[in-house]
Design brief:
- This protein has helices spanning 4-7, 11-18, 22-44, 64-77, 81-88, 92-109, 112-121, 132-138, 141-145.
- The chain is built from nine helices and no strands.
- With 161 residues, the chain is an all-alpha fold.
- The chain has one domain.
- Helix 3 packs across helix 6 (92-109) and helix 4 crosses helix 6.
- It is 60% helix and 0% strand.
């Protein structure tokens, strides 16, 4: 799973995957945090609630940096939702919903020069990258950034007789 905490330790890789420097990423996340809070508060207070705000299932991408990383990787490589879900360890429909929520917020938070650079990345004629192999051809750094640890040995209790 790709997370900001892991990739922030490697600034060159962050730049290759997102197209922004660590400083630009930090500035954008600082500007984006209050916008995200306002949007979530507005969304959660639209309908009559049984429970208080803040209760319920939390986002798997818990930090604003992880959410921003998702949208910047999408802008950079124009990935399908299935591939983004695989890379970030979330369901493809959640990747789609997060992308739709984050796009207008990133456009508001980005300064004009960065906003123009972000908008120019995804061209209308571009074909979406839909497989892992195609993504590794476009950007081989993903192989280093993502590790699969699903087949680790687990201790099991002994069988009872």
């Amino acid at each position: 799973m790709l997370r900001f905490k892991k990739i922030s330790k490697r600034p060159k890789m962050l730049f290759r995957l997102t197209g922004v420097t660590v400083e630009q990423f930090a500035n954008l996340s600082v500007k984006l945090n209050p916008l995200w809070g306002q949007t979530e508060k507005k969304r959660l207070s639209k309908r009559e609630r049984k429970h208080a705000l803040g209760q319920g299932r939390k986002y798997k991408l818990s930090t604003i940096e992880d959410k921003l990383l998702l949208i910047l990787v999408f802008y950079r490589f124009y990935l399908t939702d299935e591939l983004m879900g695989y890379i970030f360890g979330i369901h493809p429909s959640n990747a789609c919903r997060m992308r739709i929520k984050m796009e207008p917020l990133v456009e508001k938070a980005a300064d004009p020069s960065l906003s123009q650079a972000i908008k120019q990345r995804v061209s209308q004629e571009a074909k979406k990258v839909s497989t892992w192999e195609d993504l590794l051809i476009v950007c081989p750094e993903f192989a280093e950034a993502i590790t699969d640890a699903t087949e680790q040995h687990r201790r099991r209790p002994p069988k009872r007789i």
